[in-house]
Amino acid sequence: MRIIDHIQCIDFPCEDARQESYYIPDVEVDSESIKLMLISETAATKLMDNYYFSSDALFARTTVQAFQEAGAKVTNIQDILRKGIYLTTAIKCGKNDYSVATSMISHCSSLLEREIALFANVRAYLLMGDVAINGFNAIAKRHGEPRGVPAGSTYKIREGEFTFRGKRVFPSYLQAGPSYRIEKSKQRMIAEDIAKAMEVAGVS
Description:
Elements: E1 17-18, E2 36-42, H1 58-69, H2 77-82, E3 85-91, E4 94-95, H3 102-116, E5 124-128, H4 130-142, H5 154-157, E6 162-164, E7 167-172, H6 184-201
Parallel strand pairs: 2-3, 2-5, 5-7
Antiparallel strand pairs: 1-4, 6-7
Helix pairs in contact: 1-6, 3-4
């Protein structure tokens, strides 16, 4: 299954989005093999930096590093995918500013919802950063369901046990982007959260 064949943004209503950096994962995936889904914040500003663009892509390199720090024996994104871990973003366009408008998160959550629905065997979700958490919660809100992650700073809530539709949810920090911008303490917590999610999902 190619993800890009199943989800597309048609109207591009978000005024604060960088439409030139719109990116849906262009990758072939065995949907039944996916047990863990990692959702980070927005698509990369440069198309060449997205997860599946190349092994040298910024998102790929920093994510492989995060999984290695979590104890996973991986050297590239395909190794992560073969373990049954799928990587995507909550927002399919790049952002213009540091923050992302609530309206943009809400609109793009409909694409994320369709993407999540492609993977029936997922056992856990890793939500990397506030935008991913808010996008995930927007799906629950749209259907009148309890939010997957409660309100609060990631530092305070990340060790809680949360579920969404019977599947575990792990809130964490953004791992995709320049590694030098991620504080050492956050790198450690990201590694811990990845390791816990992998254990719960049964991937190693």
